[in-house]
Amino acid sequence: MEYLVLVTSSLFFLISVQYLFGLYARAKLPPGPIGLPLFGNLLQIGPKPHKSLAKLAKQYGPLITLQLGSVTNVVVSSAEMAKEIFLKHDADFSGRSVPDAVAGGLQNHDVATPWISAGDQWRTLRKALSIYLTNPKKLDTLQELRLKVVTQMVEHVKEISKRGEVVDIGKLAFTTALNQMSNTCFSVDVADFSSNQDVNGFHHAVNTVMEVDGKMNFADYFPWIKRFDPQGIRKDAKAAYGWLDQLCEKFIIQRLRHRESNLPAHGDLLDSFLDFRQENPVNFDVKQIKVLLMDLFIAGTDTNSSTIEWAMTELIIHSNIRQKLRRRMCPGIRLAERVMSLMLMSLIAHFDWKLPDNMLPEELDMDDTFGVTSQKAIPLLLVPSTIDD
Predict the structure, then answer these.
(1) Which of 6, 64, 167, 214 could form a disulfide with 75 if both were Cys (CB 3.0 to 4.6 A apart)?
(2) Helix and strand totals (H; E) in the chain
(3) One pLDDT digit (tens) per residue for the chain, 389 residues
């Protein structure tokens, strides 16, 4: 009994000392709410941190100090302050702590675009992206591939329109974005518009990655529990990242064999990255190409699809804006150069949309879920009717 009292008292003493020390250290940091011993401000953040942080910003200003478990965080919540930090002090803030879901799930995460440290590899990666991914001329050469996928999407929605069925806008946008990325990277489709099943496992893998990377993981705030993976996040992340890793590796091996046989080039991003690798064999190898392709798939599908779903939701609520966009977009629809623009313009230009079951726009649920991207809590279902060409 005395031993138990001694242990309890010691733990209480250590927690109190840590708490008081934390209060002293915070005096030199931006303002923020005072948290609880051990937990800090975790309970104040809640299940929707983006909304909690917005409320705290109104109270404490554009820079907020939060103690999340054993980790001290400074939150930037204004465009002006973000510009000050990322443009004027970018070198000082270039390092990032890697979430446990990424560290435990993604092989070679240290060369992934979001987590790579500044150095020769980072500069080489940035050069490759500026030449092949953000260069307008390169994007123009891939425009026909993107247009092909959107044409398939339009034809699919026309068939649904004939049957008078509803369209799950989020799933439609995800399939479109996925095929646009796979064509841009590999010149192939990897998803089927006509199937409601996740045939190739892409949707599940990408959704899992976005979910575990965006979920509040206690292992990130209490490092001593990482080995136990109490929420199973590391396990799920490893399975999803591993699936995408194997898939991208398969595409790379097939392409290398294709090139060794002196067959015609595809001219897609994979060909471009492999060409760039020959010029930069030290800092841009097959390992880095594989991780980069995974980054592009994850970022280019989930982000685009959720943005399209939110945009269509707003256009349903504000029908007058939808009509204005249609008059302005139709003449130049084939000139669209970007994934989201082309997708959204096609949905608006070719179809009228209404809510099912005589539902009114003001009845739409606008709640969201927290993650790497903000998803609609309830999927947007719309009934399309084809506009005569």
Answers:
(1) 64
(2) 16, 7
(3) 554 544 444 444 444 445 544 554 556 789 999 888 889 999 898 888 888 999 999 999 999 999 999 999 999 988 888 888 888 877 777 777 889 999 989 988 888 888 888 888 888 988 988 888 777 777 777 778 888 899 999 999 999 999 999 999 999 999 998 898 888 899 988 888 887 666 567 888 888 898 888 888 999 999 899 999 999 999 999 999 999 999 999 999 999 999 999 999 998 899 999 999 998 888 899 999 999 999 888 888 888 888 899 999 999 998 887 777 667 555 433 333 467 788 898 999 899 999 999 999 999 999 988 877 788 899 999 999 998 65
CB-based contact 326:332 (threshold 8 Å): no
DSSP letter for each residue of 116-144: PPSSHHHHHHHHHHHHHTS-HHHHHHTHH
CB atoms within 10 A of CB 321: 12
Residue 279 dihedral angles phi and psi, to the nearest 5°: -85, -20
Nearest to 50 by CA among 379, 388, 375, 310: 375
Non-local (6+) Cβ contacts of 104 within 8 A are 226, 229, 234, 237, 238
Q: Which residues pair with 368 in a beta bridge?
A: 376
- For residues 289 and 295, what is the distance between their CA atoms, to the nearest angstrom? 10
For the record, the structure tokens of 127 come out as 């050069």
Residues 50, 80 contacting (CB under 8 angstroms): no
Task: Tell me which H or E stretch contains 189.
Answer: none
Residues facing 167 on adjacent strands: 382
Structure tokens at 305: 């699809």
Beta strands in 260-360, from DSSP E residues, in sequence order: 351-354
The residue with tokens 């109490």 is: 230
Eight-state DSSP code of residue 387: P
Report the C-alpha dihedral over residues 229, 233, 236, 238, rounded to 10 degrees. Answer: -70
CA angle 378, 381, 385 (to 5 degrees): 165
Question: How far is 107 from 105, CA to CA, in rounded Å?
Answer: 6
β-sheet bridge partners, residue 369 = 375
pTM (two decimals): 0.84
The helix/strand/coil state of 67 is strand
The closest of 54, 59, 60, 67 to 30, measured between CA atoms, is: 60
